[in-house]
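Summary for the steering committee. The consortium agreed at its last meeting that each partner would contribute one worked example illustrating the joint modelling workflow. Our contribution is presented below. We chose a case with several input lines so that the handling of multiple components could be demonstrated. No manual editing was applied between input and output; the record is shown as generated.
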Amino acid sequence: MSYRSSVEILTEWDIVAARQLGRNEAKEVGFGTVDQARITTAISELARNIYLYAGKGKIEIERISEGGKYGITIIASDEGPGIPDVRKVMEDGFSTSGGLGAGMPGVKRLMDTFKIDTVVGEGTVIKATKWIR
Amino acid sequence: MNLRIPILKLNDCLIVSIQWELDDQTALQFQEDLLTKLHETSARGVVIDLTPIDFIDSFIAKVLGDVISMSGLMGAKVVITGIQPAVAITLIELGIRLEDVMTALDLENGLEKLQRELEA
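What follows is the complete predicted structure of the assembly.
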């Protein structure tokens, strides 16, 4: 059983709460300052996407371990409109919100693994993992 | 919750030290406050010090980039100082390039750079 904590994203303030939770978790798991910044930034981007596109959703932070390695998985889930063209949102520079948000390619670069599950009309689940090197 | 970021005046420069993590509202309020202060004081330069800041996301980067452009429209030059290594790394990985932005290692260097720019 892995340890998981979460923040509901309903307002702008919840974006701050989510990244504070992420930063604390990253620190406790043992990430260095640069990886703490990567994780905090990734959470901020994912939480903002939920707030902007879905209106509400959830950020969960899971502590993970595998073969002596430790890490963190961010799970960003919402029941928003979903993403019609995933390939397009993974292109650098693509944004439907008028230039706000560095978008998914940026988050992918900050993390080690990145996976989007999305169904139009049902919602989106993004899982992104970072391992301690 | 709405804390305002203090803006200090030194000769013809404004000095801002951002001391805590910026939420969206505080960042936008700062944008407005800085431009108002520029207008009131006729300052020609601004140094924004980010030394205590341990991460910058795309929203805060956009607000900062915008306020630099807006200050430029009003005839003032802006220098950003004190960007931590972790912040520099994550900004570039995120794909954010604050191009054409004057930067310096710390406040002291930033003020010197600004003075040179203003005299030039």
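The mean pLDDT of chain B is 94. Residues 54 and 86 of chain B are 7 Å apart (CA to CA).
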